[in-house]
Amino acid sequence: MPILRHNMNHADLVTYAAHLRRETFRAFLEHGEAHLGGSFSMIEALIVLYEVVLRPSDKFILSKAHASFPLCLLLQEKGLAPELKTHLEIDPENGIHATTGSLGHGLPIATGMALARKLKDIKGRVIVMMSDGECQEGTTWESLLVGAHHKLDNLLVLVDYNKIQALSRLSDALSLDDLAEKFRAFNWDCAEIMDGHDIGELVTVLTQPLSGKPRVVLMHTIKGKGVPEFEDDPVWHARRIKEEDLEIGRKRLGIE
Q1: CATH number of domain containing 121
Q2: Is residue 248 in some structural domain?
Q3: Which of 36, 172, 182, 240 sits at 20 to 30 Å (Cα–Cα) from 161?
Q4: Residue 194 pLDDT > 80, yes or no?
């Protein structure tokens, strides 16, 4: 497990999120690829998970592994050595608990882990972060059925609800209207965070006690958050950073 501090205050968390966003941008430049949109939409949630929520007995799975750079950088800063790559390969010693990147697989894996822990009476939760586009896949809803049937209250799902998938909007590709009610209809406890970049709101919701049911948190986020010129634009799913984008990003993120 990575080193977990759990002693950061609100200002520390905000500062760390800004730092991680800058380091992620630098990594995109160095490696010549940039799944910037989905990486930037989840950074605050990732910081709150690792600095407030996760305990040594917990496991975290990033299902939306196209956005793996900020996770790997965070783990590296905690003294681990995960390989910086878009599609994650299992490496438990370095904090990567599942091979992900083919979208829709993280939740089924996490559900199996949570069920195994229940059967073996192993403490700790399994926490998975997935994209909203993954909520269009059949394995997601099969996993929700399994989680509810076995009362997996040790399973927490975070949905990065930025309303954009790949190069289109959810509303154009396959609408997910009333998503919270869909989860509740599958007998899951469901909470919504209306600003998934608000550190205080994230801490409040993600530290709520167990309810006896598996829990999902819908985080309404902005793809590309942190650089206004890039925000809420499907093109930033996987666009390489060009010359003009470089200067914009540096200015907005405070990079010298």
Answers
A1: 3.40.50.970
A2: yes
A3: 240
A4: yes
